[in-house]
Amino acid sequence: MKFNILKTSINLLFFAIALSMFNSCKHKGEENNVLKRPNIIFIMSDDHAYQALSCYDGSLNQTPNIDRLAEGGLIFTNSFVCNSICAPSRATLLTGKFSHNNGQFDNRIRFDSSQLTFPKLLQESGYETAIIGKWHLKSQPTGFDYWNVLPGQGHYYNPDFIRMGKRERVEGYVTNLITDFSLEWLENRNNEKPFCLMIHNKAPHRSWMPDSTHFSLYKEENFPLPSNYFDNYEGRTAAAEQKMSVIEDMDLVYDLKMYDEEGEIPSKYRHWYLPMLDRMNEDQRKAWEREYNEKTKAFKNADLKGEELAIWKFNRYLADYLKCIASVDDNVGRILDYLEQTGLDENTIVVYTSDQGFYLGEHGWFDKRFMYEESLKMPLVMKLPGKSQAREINQLVQNIDFAPTFLDLAGIQIPEEIQGASLLPLMEGRDSEDWRESIYYHYYEYPGAGHSVKRHYGIRTARYKLIHFYDDIDTWELYDLEQDPREMNNLISDPDYFEISDELKKNLNTLGHECGDSIVSYLH
Ligand code: SGN
Ligand code: CA
């Protein structure tokens, strides 16, 4: 991974002083707290891979606006999700707990919104709170003074929103609308209170429908193909049995937009495609058809097969995925411009992340779920209030840490039941010797849901990863990330690594017990 924008000469001291100055204010008394506690803007996209952020890796695309956050703040290189799937990630964000403790094991469950969440505590302590965009937790949002969310996964074009319980269809492109509503809320909020605004994009979730303003971006045959795109999954049974292969499972019509009226292009999900277009107004549909009809004609004429078709699919997939991200980036820019113009940037922390990572052709895949690096890692960048220099944070952090961090920033005592740790010491560049040395992971959405990723749990340290796949399978995998960052070589049967795997198994068991995951002792 490259960190293009990071300088090596870093002024740690400057950070420590700046942050401790604003933190010192929050301990002086209630009145001061309310005035001085920072505003929080938390921007989370859906399925945004760190590989598609130029502050992490500029080989695929440029994200100049999200990079502004990293340039003026912090970039986390080891930020991980506890369960790489949407609703569980969102429940963990709100509660600061692992899935087995907040009950949100998978996307199918309805979130128990009577639970303790950080927005509720912020609200109680005088913050004005709002959430705008994707919600995906089925139950009504609680703990928010204002909410305006997409039902379910939401639509890219002319989406419905549920605003404070009232559903209405709004004309426009979803990423722009979420930002329009966010700016509107910022304009009209209660100026007397600090605020926490959560802006949750739908993009770049499947089926990757770009806004027409970005149609002309990217040459579609030029993306660097991951070296393991044609992975044979040797030694990795669960990986061999998934259904998230770009080559096998990505639909030519629904995913890749090669719709032909004659119906000659093979597609399982053709019937899902037209309803997405039916939402468009005349202009949107004309622009869409102009763009994709040409491509479809060219695709049919080329009559690609085998490896050529596989590579074409990869490029087609990435082009639309990255165009959706271009909209996200533009809209992050709108928020940052607004904060600068109004002076709010002086007392606002802006966080950018994704609900999980995503595969952009690595192992031949799209989607997430697995504990392998691309879907385990969440991008995480933060701009601190005021001006500061860029800094990289390499400690292992997880999405259980968001809730305690925001409470800590607001000067609220972190309840015992929260399982994560405040990131504030890392953010301030303070001594963090006793920071966690491993993270715990558990994925449950099997059987039943698409993509067929087996249940598994595991441990990751700075160097190693141990995974146990279970349920209708019982296999272990061990990776030495230093030697094999792409996780192609399962070392579980390698005698040179027996000692390491034994130790990791013990630590995994301890971690599972400590965080209260009873299934772990049952399975060992
Ligand atoms: C949808 C997608 C899947 C995706 C899940 C979960 N299919 O079902 O590809 O894995 O969402 O995604 S789609 O055809 O409906 O797009 S998540 O990010 O919400 O967890
Ligand atoms: Ca997601």
**Which small-molecule species are bound to the chains here?**
2-deoxy-6-O-sulfo-2-(sulfoamino)-alpha-D-glucopyranose, calcium ion
CATH class of the largest domain: Alpha Beta
CATH architecture of the largest domain: 3-Layer(aba) Sandwich
User: Could you state the CATH homologous superfamily of the largest domain?
Assistant: Alkaline Phosphatase, subunit A
Average pLDDT works out at: 93
Distance between the termini: 35 Å
**Count of DSSP strands:** 16
According to CATH, the fold-level topology of the largest domain is Alkaline Phosphatase, subunit A
The computed structural class is alpha/beta
Strand order of the largest sheet: 7-6-5-4-8-1-9-10-2-11
Keywords:
single chain; 524 residues; alpha/beta; Alkaline Phosphatase, subunit A; Arylsulfatase, C-terminal domain; 2 domains; 10-stranded mixed sheet; 4-stranded antiparallel sheet; 34% helix; binds 2-deoxy-6-O-sulfo-2-(sulfoamino)-alpha-D-glucopyranose; binds calcium ion
